[in-house]
């Protein structure tokens, strides 16, 4: 016996997405994700903030709420945060569609759910004026090594950096 009591049912503190992320319902890329349901989905969407210095954003597999690192929110580049939100909103729609977005047996850069989310973010990155080099840098994330990065970039139909073609 450990002699301690551990309550295992800790609450998750959720906040309204729109209290922190405003105007996204006006963004065409977001309207393209949710169509007629844009206002309704964003008005009902909740966000959980976590304080770890590691991690950026994600979507809960339990109920589809967005999870955001307060450290990243404070210190990240605004354009990248904006693009990440759009990426996560694609996952929110996938969640509503009942798609499994973390199929463990498929490598991250090959997951259709990720390719779709990154494709929407890359398209929006171009629209806001980011160059291809900047976009490739944006896609360099700590959880993908060089090989995974190149694979994702290829899956997105972008030129592989340093490629011979
Ligand atoms: Zn994703």
Number of strands: 4
Q: What percent strand?
A: 5-15%
> Which structural class do the helices and strands define?
alpha+beta
User: Could you list the spans in which at least 5 consecutive residues all have pLDDT below 50?
Assistant: none
Topology at a glance:
Blueprint: E1 14-16, H1 17-20, H2 28-34, H3 38-44, E2 46-50, E3 57-59, E4 66-69, H4 70-75, H5 78-96, H6 112-127, H7 132-138, H8 146-155
Parallel strand pairs: 2-4
Antiparallel strand pairs: 1-2, 3-4
Bound molecules: zinc ion.
Residues 87, 91, 114, 117 line the site of zinc ion.
Question: What does this molecule look like?
Answer:
With 165 residues, the protein is of the alpha+beta class. It contains eight helices and four strands; from the N terminus they run E-H-H-H-E-E-E-H-H-H-H-H. It has helices at 17-20, 28-34, 38-44, 70-75, 78-96, 112-127, 132-138, 146-155; strands spanning 14-16, 46-50, 57-59, 66-69. Helix 2 (28-34) packs parallel to helix 5 and helix 5 crosses helix 6. The longest helix is centred in the middle third of the chain and has 19 residues, at 78-96. The radius of gyration is 17 Å and the shape is globular. It starts with 13 loop residues before the first strand and ends in a 10-residue tail after the last helix. Zinc ion binds next to helix 5 and helix 6.
Structure summary:
With 165 residues, this protein is an alpha+beta fold. Helices cover 46% and strands 9% of the residues.
Descriptive keywords:
4-stranded mixed sheet, binds zinc ion, alpha+beta, 165 residues
């Amino acid at each position: 016996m450990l002699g301690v009591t551990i309550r295992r049912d800790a609450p998750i503190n959720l906040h309204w997405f729109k209290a922190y992320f405003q105007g996204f319902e006006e963004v065409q890329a977001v309207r393209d994700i949710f169509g007629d349901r844009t206002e309704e989905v964003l008005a009902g969407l909740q966000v959980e903030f976590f304080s770890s210095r590691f991690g950026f954003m994600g979507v809960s597999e339990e109920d589809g709420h967005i999870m955001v690192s307060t450290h990243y929110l404070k210190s990240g580049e605004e354009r990248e945060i904006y693009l990440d939100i759009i990426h996560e909103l694609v996952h929110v729609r996938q969640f509503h569609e009942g798609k499994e977005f973390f199929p463990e047996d498929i490598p991250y850069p090959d997951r259709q759910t990720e390719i779709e989310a990154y494709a929407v973010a890359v398209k929006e990155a171009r629209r806001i004026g980011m160059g291809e080099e900047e976009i490739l840098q944006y896609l360099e994330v700590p959880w993908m090594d060089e090989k995974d990065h190149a694979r994702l970039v290829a899956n997105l139909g972008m030129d592989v950096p340093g490629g011979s073609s």
